[in-house]
Amino acid sequence: MAFPEHRPRRLRRTQALRDLVRETDLAPRHLAAPLFVKEGIGEPAPISSMPGHHQHTVESLRKEARELAERGVRALVLFGIPAGKDPEGTEAWAEEGVAQQAIRALRDELGDEVVIIADLCLCEYTDHGHCGILRGEDLDNDATLERYRRIAVSQAAAGADLVAPSGMMDGQVAAIRAVLDREGFTETAILAYAAKYASSFYGPFREAAEGAPRFGDRRSHQMDPGNLDEALREIRADVAEGADIVMVKPALPYLDVIRGAREAVDVPVAAYNVSGEYAMIKAAAERGWIDGTAAMLETLTAIRRAGAGLILTYFAREAADLI
Ligand code: PBG
User: Fold this and answer.
1) Helices (H), ranges, 57-163
2) Cis before residue 250, ω within 30 degrees of 0?
């Protein structure tokens, strides 16, 4: 059918008509809120490059989580910032580590009303800021897996519903699945940061999580932005290793990867709308250069349209208030 019989504008005439034919929806249940908890601070500390966000105390974290849950945002992604760091990142698997304390506090506060997702990496815990154990200036993949296993068990023991390995070490999902099963945590799920790119959009996060590398960068493990086929190989490998959910990160510059993931595997696909994506919209809106609310909703809708079932986003609270 061609014009003049075909007039697509007929279905765009009123909001009711547009609602009737909308293909993508966005609800609070599609959103997961990343939260930072820092050891040894008396008050929540604002994060300057991420307006509206804080490094929380365990107490302020409880309050924030409750307010999110009241808005229908029930998935919480936890990042811990320890008071002390060392070359191995030992606080990452300490029973009284800040993330472990926070997981227990959230469970105590909200029970099974919320899904607790524990980010599993070493960069916030090592004094050099790298995601694993160094041999010289290089990451030792398999020595790092040994530490990831300990972190996974400690987070599962604290009560995490999902652990989310974000360090892009080879074999990390298989290593974690095996140790969780061996230690009796067969019901703890794995959200794999499967296709994580070496991106310039993580800047504000590194301020928030105090996890910037002291030297070098993360290109020995994070992916080249030019590659899609490689992302699909990573995603299929993580599913084969036992990932329950796979994630693409960042989101907005990688919508084709999200779509590719959706078509390549049949596990749920998540996308991480990262700190730089958040900061860009906030900064432009602050200058009056874009309508921040509209840009936020458009961004989240586009990520859903690309194929993400779940979006990790710093907009979770703000978006849930509107939708
Ligand atoms: C590393 C980690 C990073 C993010 C989540 N986990 C940063 C990095 O790889 O340097 C970035 C998230 C964001 O920018 O919002 N464990």
Assistant:
1) 58-70, 98-110, 141-158
2) yes
* Strands 45-46 and 54-56, sheet pairing: antiparallel
Domain residue ranges in the chain: 26-246
Tell me how far apart the alpha carbons of residues 172 and 290 are, in angstroms, rounded to a whole number. 40
Q: What percent of the chain has pLDDT over 70?
A: 100
Class of domain 26-246: alpha beta
Could you tell me the distance, in angstroms and rounded to a whole number, from the CA of residue 96 to the centre of ligand 1? Answer: 23
**pLDDT confidence bin for 29, thresholds 50/70/90:** very high
The pLDDT score that the predictor gives to residue 321 is: 98
Compute the CA torsion angle 89, 194, 273, 116 (nearest 10 deg): -60
- The torsion angle over the Cα atoms of residues 40, 44, 72 and 299, rounded to 10 degrees, is -110
DSSP for 1-37, please give it. Answer: --TTT--GGGGGSSHHHHHHT------GGGEEEEEEE
Q: What residues are in contact with ligand 1 under a 6 Å CB criterion?
A: 119, 121, 123, 131, 166, 202, 205-206, 218, 274-275
pLDDT at 74: 96
